[in-house]
Design goal:
Chain A is of the alpha+beta class. Chain A is built from 4 helices and 11 strands, in the order βββββαβββαβααββ. Chain A has 2 domains: 139 residues, Alpha-Beta Complex (Nucleoside Triphosphate Pyrophosphohydrolase), CATH 3.90.79.10; 62 residues, Arc Repressor Mutant, subunit A, CATH 1.10.10.10. Chain A binds a DNA duplex through helix 4.
Chain lengths: 228, 228
DNA sequence: GACAATAGTGTCGAACTTACACCTTGTCAA
DNA sequence: TTGACAAGGTGTAAGTTCGACACTATTGTC
């Protein structure tokens, strides 16, 4: 926490450093991201990415994780650094450099986020129906989305959206949502199974009033490896 | 420039922000990077990446370009942001966040770099014979190299090493250097020409006492597009 | 004119990608 | 119990891409 009772002086001007996080999920077959409503100036009342100022003895990754948890209650995600935004007037208060991160979260981990800290509200928004965003956060979101889509091709990033167990139809549905196009069921299953990244749990899962599907899990441990 | 006659105070501690740049070239059929010898403490006398402190009213990209030019005399490169390093004790003086960049330069643009500013010397080093580096710069170099190799597959990044005109053999040689493996001449030419990214200049180039080769140039304008 | 050195060219098989349709297994309601 | 509904699950053939592979062409030199 910050203690405004003293001041800190330097022989040269220093920018402030923040972290901001773009948290993606797939919800109702739509890509969605997590936003907080700002409680304070500037942009009070605007929606923004969760994030905040770096503590002076805190690693960047830790700051992103802490701010995310403080403002939304969501913890334990794997945060990957995205890009650093530092245009000179991106924050009206002072010079602010923002180191941005992105993360994926499975639908079922949606322990409804709770607002706290500098946020007066928290909610998920469909990616193609975002409200106006504070600062340059719209640009950050765009870059995160480009990265996400690019990584679909050459990494296992999509598994980041899947719960511990899932069916092939559910996985295909996530790919279709992210790629925004339908995929052939047989070819999809062939390709996924050929990669040898998932295995059957042996159980079945009933998702409706019809034939139940085989349940799968990722072969790799907790954190989904992202092939760079 | 910095004016140390006054001080700058903030209600909260601020880190310093620097930029550092990894400049790659291919030289004598080997990958090489540009290093400067530090004139000042800390790590005075050590080799390090060119870079330095962000001016308070300067964009990050501009800072990287400025510091590169000040310390090495090299200007006009396309700098792409790589990653931001901010471990708490990576600089012994104070908390320093470094936004790092990388760039590629063709062999023929090697107007011999000249040391200036905070650098007492500048030189190119073969990538697999680097001296010990100051700060965490070895980690930065490693990450830049991983990114470079990864992008070879799905981008036109290799053209960044080529002069305005070149022969197919020269291009193949750059690929072989970067991939560290020999390539089949016929398959290489087929693949490159199929991409439709280069065109014949109509001229020939004599590279020795033997049959001259056709000269090519990149189809795209000045800056080589890097497909993300 | 023979030799040295690099430039330049085509084919075949294997592997991978894509397009495409039907039967199976469960629920539910008549 | 049976038939309709809904999603689960499976194979094949054609086209395309990728990789291995060897010889002729052109220039300069001796």
């Amino acid at each position: 926490m910050r203690s405004p009772s003293q001041t800190f002086s330097y022989p040269y001007p220093h920018p402030a450093v923040t972290t901001d996080v773009v948290v993606f999920t797939v919800r109702n077959n739509r890509l969605a991201i997590l936003l907080v409503k700002r409680a304070n100036m500037p942009f009070a009342g605007s929606w923004a990415l969760p994030g905040g100022f770096l503590d002076i003895d805190e690693d960047l990754d830790a700051c992103a994780a802490r701010e995310l948890e403080e403002e939304t209650g969501i913890a334990g995600l794997y945060l990957e650094q995205l890009y650093t935004f530092g245009a000179t007037h991106r924050d009206p208060r002072e010079r602010v450099i923002s180191v941005t991160y992105y993360a994926l979260v499975p639908q079922d981990a949606l322990t409804a986020p709770r607002a706290a800290s500098d946020a007066s509200d928290v909610d998920w928004f469909d990616f193609d129906a975002l409200p106006p965003l504070a600062f340059d956060h719209a640009a950050i979101v765009q870059m995160a989305h480009r990265r996400l889509v690019a990584k679909l091709d050459y990494s296992t990033i999509a598994f980041g959206f899947m719960p511990k167990t899932f069916t092939l139809s559910e996985l295909q549905c996530v790919y279709e949502t992210l790629l925004n196009q339908p995929l052939d069921k047989r070819n999809f299953r062939k390709r996924i199974l050929a990669q040898d990244l998932i295995e059957e749990t042996g159980r079945q899962r009933r998702n409706g009033k019809h034939r139940p599907a085989r349940e799968y899990r990722a072969r790799f441990a907790k954190r989904v490896e992202i092939i760079k």
